[in-house]
Amino acid sequence: MRRPTQQQIIDELHVKPVINPAEELRFRLDFLKGYLQFSRMKGFVLGISGGQDSSLAGRLCQLAVEELREETGSDYRFIALRLPYGVQKDEEDAQRALRFIRPDKSYVVNIKPAVDGAVQSFEEATGLKMSDFNKGNQKAQERMTVHYRFANAFNVLVVGTDHAAEALPGFFTKYGDGGVDLTPLSGLSKQQGRELLKHLGAPEDIYLKPPTADLLDEVPGRLDEDELGISYEVMDAFLTGKSVPEPVDERIIHRYQSTEHKRRLPVTPFDTWWQ
Ligand SMILES: Nc1ncnc2c1ncn2[C@@H]1O[C@H](COP(=O)(O)OP(=O)(O)OC[C@H]2O[C@@H]([n+]3cccc(C(=O)O)c3)[C@H](O)[C@@H]2O)[C@@H](O)[C@H]1O
Ligand SMILES: Nc1ncnc2c1ncn2[C@@H]1O[C@H](COP(=O)(O)OP(=O)(O)OP(=O)(O)O)[C@@H](O)[C@H]1O
Ligand SMILES: [Mg+2]
């Protein structure tokens, strides 16, 4: 498998060194509106965690359907989902995000019974204890399942929050938060996402909240940067073409290469990218 250069990765992930927030917001809103009309669906659904990415993607979805309603007179809508595993420790942050997004409709689905049932079935079948890490991925995949039940029921598209700083290390669950229909934040660094939230008038607490996947029972709210061992600041520097000290640049490139399968469709006998 080829070893990509920093510039090739930047190009593959479509990252700009600098963004103009107003232009960038317009580009992404037009994408959401254009693709929604092409799909002939009625709107979007997205889980709102209280973190930066779903706050930004959720607000963009709401603004896109409001513009489309105004322009077409049709009943487009955005559905926000709260998907806690039991009681979420930072529920107040999620409520703050919902107040910022002001979604047309929101529902709460507790994923705990489904996740616990799946873990129990696995453990009964295998006689093994499922690790907390593996269970974390089950949580992300259960959220994907709930998204698609809402998508089917309400004729809407599932929105993902993947952006360049998560795509770079492949920091998402395959067919969990990676299992979506469209990703309006693609190509943005973490800092550029913050700039867009700021431009949209989000409260500072939303865009300064430290990023967490929050998937572990044993370490609630574990910071992404602690798990990754690389800071978003460094990944953003890499993505915007700045020089990153050795051996961190090598680690980033290695992680990008080893997660290539997560950014692609399932490998077929006709694919050659891995050779
Ligand atoms: N070379 C290869 N070619 C094709 N498929 C390959 C493969 N290597 C593994 N696989 C498959 O991929 C699976 C592993 O992928 P996956 O199940 O995703 O598992 P994995 O990448 O090990 O874990 C997901 C990571 O994403 C993080 N995450 C998840 C969700 C949200 C967020 C967040 O920031 O919010 C972060 C999470 O903390 C964890 O570090 C393997 O079990 C195997 O089935
Ligand atoms: N408790 C939750 N309730 C609803 N949706 C969730 C929850 N946890 C995760 N998600 C969904 O999974 C996505 C991936 O999580 P991720 O942590 O990357 O994003 P975030 O929480 O929005 O932002 P940040 O990365 O800054 O924490 C979220 O954007 C959201 O759509
Ligand atoms: Mg999060």
UniProtKB/TrEMBL annotation:
Binding site for deamido-NAD(+): 174, 181, 261-262
Protein name: NH(3)-dependent NAD(+) synthetase
Alphabetized SUPFAM superfamilies for the sequence: Adenine nucleotide alpha hydrolases-like (SSF52402)
Molecular function GO terms recorded: ATP binding; glutaminase activity; metal ion binding; NAD+ synthase (glutamine-hydrolyzing) activity; NAD+ synthase activity
Binding site for Mg(2+): 53, 166
Domain NAD/GMP synthase: residue ranges: 28-266
Enzyme Commission number(s) from the entry: 6.3.1.5
Known pathway: Cofactor biosynthesis; NAD(+) biosynthesis; NAD(+) from deamido-NAD(+) (ammonia route): step 1/1
Quaternary structure (record): Homodimer.
Species assigned in the record: Sulfobacillus harzensis
Sequence positions that bind ATP: 47-54, 161, 190, 212
Keyword Cell cycle: no
Enzyme class: ligase
